[in-house]
Write a structure and sequence with these properties.
With 210 residues, the protein is an alpha/beta fold. Helix content is 34%, strand content 23%.
Length: 210
C-alpha cells in the first residue's frame, strides 16, 4: 500500500460528551503544535458539553440526530456528506459513543482516528478501566488507533502506559489515563498528518528518519 502523503489538513472531531480530548486538540491547533484547522465538531447528542467548547473556540459545532435517519448506515452517510462538504481530510473520534458504519469508513479510508482508554488489544469496548481493575492488571493505558469495522481493532498509531496503583478506583484510574489521552492524541494526529507511514497487515509502520 502506498504511503500517505501530507496535505492541507482540515480536521473534523466527532464527540458525544464533555469533549476533554476535543479541548486538547483545540489547544494543540491553537498553539501551532498541529498544523491543521478544525473544520467542524459534530455530536450525536444535543446536550454534549463539547459542543459549547467548540463554539467558545469559534468552531462550527453541529448536533446531528440519529433519530432523524432510518438506520446506522444512513446516519453515517449523512455525516460523511457533511464532512466532505467541509473538505475534511482527517476525522478524529473523541469520546464518540457510536460504532462507525461502513459509509463513513468508505468515505475516509484510513483517515479516521480514535482514542481508547486501554492498551489495546486489551479491554476493548466500554468500561475499559473497570475491565482493567477486574482483571487485576498492573499496567493499563491509552491507545490511538485507526478506525476499522472491527471494534477498537484498527492499526495502533500510538500508546502510553499508565500504572494501576493499589487502591485505585475506576475514577482515579480513569483520571490518570485521561492525562495520557490528552498528551498522545495530538501527537498521533501530527504523526498521521505527517504522512510518513504505511499499513503493513495490522501494523501502523512509521518511516525511519534518514
Amino acid at each position: 500500500m502506498k504511503e500517505r502523503k501530507p496535505g492541507g489538513a482540515r480536521l473534523a472531531v466527532l464527540i458525544s460528551g464533555r469533549g476533554s480530548n476535543l479541548q486538547s486538540i483545540i489547544d494543540s491547533v491553537s498553539a501551532g503544535d498541529i498544523d491543521a484547522s478544525i473544520a467542524v465538531v459534530v455530536s450525536n447528542r444535543a446536550d454534549a458539553p463539547g459542543l459549547k467548547r467548540a463554539r467558545d473556540a469559534g468552531i462550527e459545532a453541529l448536533h446531528i440526530n440519529p433519530r432523524d435517519h432510518p438506520d446506522r448506515d444512513a446516519y453515517d452517510r449523512a455525516i460523511a456528506e457533511l464532512l466532505r462538504a467541509r473538505e475534511v481530510t482527517l476525522v478524529c473520534l473523541a469520546g464518540y459513543m457510536r460504532l462507525v458504519a461502513q459509509p463513513l469508513l468508505d468515505a475516509f479510508p484510513q483517515r479516521i482516528l480514535n482514542i481508547h482508554p486501554s492498551l489495546l488489544p486489551a479491554f476493548p469496548g466500554l468500561d475499559a478501566q473497570r475491565q482493567a481493575l477486574a482483571h487485576g492488571v498492573q499496567v493499563t493505558g491509552a491507545t490511538v488507533h485507526l478506525v476499522t469495522n472491527e471494534l477498537d481493532g484498527g492499526p495502533i498509531v500510538l500508546q502510553a502506559a499508565v500504572p494501576v496503583l493499589p487502591g485505585d478506583t475506576v475514577e482515579t484510574l480513569a483520571a490518570r489515563v485521561l492525562v495520557e489521552e490528552h498528551r498522545i492524541y495530538p501527537e498521533a494526529i501530527r504523526i498521521v498528518l505527517g504522512g510518513r507511514w504505511k499499513i503493513d497487515g495490522r501494523r501502523f509502520v512509521r518511516e525511519r528518519s534518514s
